[in-house]
Amino acid sequence: MRSDLGKLTADWSDIESVVLYGAGIVGGICQTLFERVDLEIPFVIDQNKKKQGTLWRGIPIISYDEARPKIQNRKIVVMAGHTAYGDITRFLNEQGLVEFKDFCNVGHFMSEWLWSAKQMNCVFHVDMTITTKCTLNCRHCNLFIPYHKEKVNFSFEEMKKSIDLFFERIDFVTYFGLIGGETFLHPDLERFIIYLGETYRKQIGKITVITNGTVTPPDSLLKVIKKYDMYLSISDYTNVVPYHKKIDQLVERADKYGIDYYRNSSIVWTDFGFPEHPLKRTPEELEEHLNSCRPNWNALHGGKFYYCNVSWCAEQSGRFKLQPEDYIDLEAIDPQDKAACRKIVELSRGTSSFCRICGGCGADNTNYVPTGVQM
């Protein structure tokens, strides 16, 4: 396992002020984190002209051109997802700025800087697959659901044990995702959300429930999603599968309950290769791939923490065997030993043995495929 931590230059250690780049979804998710960190944020950069001149947490949002003379010696923390970060990195490089010296992404910042400055063990993005049952059978599902011989709902007790073990050892998670399969098929989803929200909400920036919109959830479930300020991510495959009425009704009900949601009808899928034609990378090709693919979504399952949720799903399908270094048995770590708990953060920024055969989510994978096509 190779971790990408330890890359920030020494002058990050004593910073008192940072500039944030990005006032979008990731910025909103990270708001809770920055409320807990004593850092001055004089302004936020965003290239969206509609946002410029408005405020983020009472802080002015300005363009990069306006910000350039004001940045001075401040470091920049980029508040963007995987793909957008690559675009912003190229832009900042063109301005003469260097990654890890002048700027870094928020996931790296919270994983490395918060430990050195605040002794906080933080992880950026963790997903928990609560069910492998699904209403669809997508050919290029990145959880390989069609290849799972047995489709299961993981029990409330198992899921509770996993999050208890995890949050006893981790101070903060920016993004915690509940995914499937189809999450609304799980009979204990409402009960689990209540437990998660009541017990650990303060340790999480944003909790997201991901659905394809084919299942009609009860009002009581939507009410608890709203109560704990959760985000509903709706994957829209109606261009391939005709369920327009159901997904429209879900959107209407989300509006009714005031739930924050995003209906994604422009999802870009790539072929990971696995399991039908797994890649066979040379060590040199693997090194190049690892520099490109940093998905930033870890996994929590069965009391274990995994570098990559996709790799866990590959093993769950029965067609791949993970190595011991690909995950951490949380029960083996003393929750009172913060240095030992640091291993979780290191793995969150690491690699997996599955990377050698997986096409991945980096810019090097251009094997684009139609979204939502059924087997």
Plain-language structure description:
With 375 residues, this protein is α/β, with parallel strands linked by helices. The chain is built from 12 helices and 16 strands. The longest helix is centred in the C-terminal third of the chain and has 14 residues, at 244-257. A hairpin with a 2-residue loop joins strand 3 and strand 4. 37% of the residues are buried. The protein is globular, with a radius of gyration of 20 Å. Helix 6 runs parallel beside helix 7 (189-200) and helix 7 (189-200) runs parallel beside helix 8. It has 2 domains: 10-118, NAD(P)-binding Rossmann-like Domain (Rossmann fold, 3-Layer(aba) Sandwich), CATH 3.40.50.720; 122-369, TIM Barrel. The model has no long low-confidence stretch (mean pLDDT 93). The strands form 3 sheets. An 8-stranded mixed β-sheet has the order 11-10-9-8-7-13-14-15, sandwiched between helices. Strands 3-4-2-1-5-6 form a 6-stranded mixed β-sheet.
Give the structural class. alpha/beta
Question: From N to C, what is the helix and strand string?
Answer: EHHEEEHEHEHEHEHEHEHEEHEEHEHE
CATH architecture of the largest domain: Alpha-Beta Barrel
> Kindly state the mean pLDDT as a whole number?
93
Proportion of helical residues: 25-40%
CATH class term of the largest domain: Alpha Beta
Question: Strand portion, in percent?
Answer: 15-25%
